[in-house]
Amino acid sequence: MSLPHAILTALLEKPSSGLELTRRFDRSIGYFWSATHQQIYRELGRLEREGLIRALPSEQPARGQRKSYEVLPAGRAELSRWTAASQDPKPLRDTLLLRLRAAAVIGTAGLEDDLRRHLQLHERQLAEYREIERRDFPPGSDSAQDRLHHLILRAGIDLETFWTRWLRHALEEFADLPDGS
Amino acid sequence: MSLPHAILTALLEKPSSGLELTRRFDRSIGYFWSATHQQIYRELGRLEREGLIRALPSEQPARGQRKSYEVLPAGRAELSRWTAASQDPKPLRDTLLLRLRAAAVIGTAGLEDDLRRHLQLHERQLAEYREIERRDFPPGSDSAQDRLHHLILRAGIDLETFWTRWLRHALEEFADLPDGS
DNA sequence: AATGCCATGTAACCGGTTACATGATTTA
DNA sequence: TAAATCATGTAACCGGTTACATGGCATT
Predict the structure, then answer these.
(1) In this structure, are B99 and B76 located in the same domain?
(2) Is B94 a residue whose pLDDT tops 90?
(3) Which residues neighbour strand C (beta carbon < 7 Å)?
């Protein structure tokens, strides 16, 4: 029950067509809530049927024609409700940790290479976040919006920092392990 | 495609019935791969049909009778294959960050309380992990199994540490924000 | 006219979630 | 013997994933 609210947020930031939303879900919002174009079109249909958004009247709608949407008051209200509502954090769910647990039983053969690969990926993501921070949040940014966006980015940076540190630590342990096991 | 491998790992650690597995998925393995009893029974059925596990021949099977399972060689082979196979990390997906992004557009009203609640929950989880570390991994633990299990636990501890720090930082920012927005 | 890309969709599947059902065993 | 609990399941749903379809537009 989060995709509709992700879309409402994106449309409030800027009214968009399905494809534009899809592009934006490959960046910014997509960094912590990804979605494919199929999901997005399906959800846009639902939100319109429920009266939370509407197609901008400018253009005639047809297959292969751009349709832009904007948020209606009911949509804004629903987003406010959802944002303020108490929600439990989702329990951790991570296959890499699961594979380590399996390796403790059947041996670590083949795992080390993928740990190194993950380290690289996380380092790359961390560098990308840091570049965004440098570009979009120079020291002394001010508005409430900026501060909140920066806070979100900080979570991404700190998370990737955790992973890179932990993976380096894991690789050290591996180097130290009795061979093959 | 991870639940079957979580179950294979658990069964290799110790042959178990469905209910015993369910209990163990509330602790240990469940800390990073949770599962309900419905999932577990469905998956046990599949794994048995596919010849990766078998019911221990000791007892007659009947509804309401315990059935214990053990892993067959084919199951162990599949777990080895899966563990060594290269897998991409899943992109981050977090509703709390999404709610912050929404709050940047519609205002932060009501969010602060839930941030405080999340902070408490993460502090509690962190304390639980630390207690496990104190109990199960006294300084100078040695076997490869222990080192791997400790490594996994460390990931949990570091992740919860990240969340508690970040949430405290977020609450400071909130205290500093122009009122109501 | 054919090719390829842009834009919007439909359909089938799959794993996780929630609600409910049923048989066996223990306890009041 | 009724109620509670243990143990194993079935069924319906829901969101995310993958594969495929279709109409319009631009280029060659």
Answers:
(1) no
(2) yes
(3) A 17-20, 37-38, 41-42, 44-45, 61, 63-67; B 1-3, 34-36, 38-39, 62-65
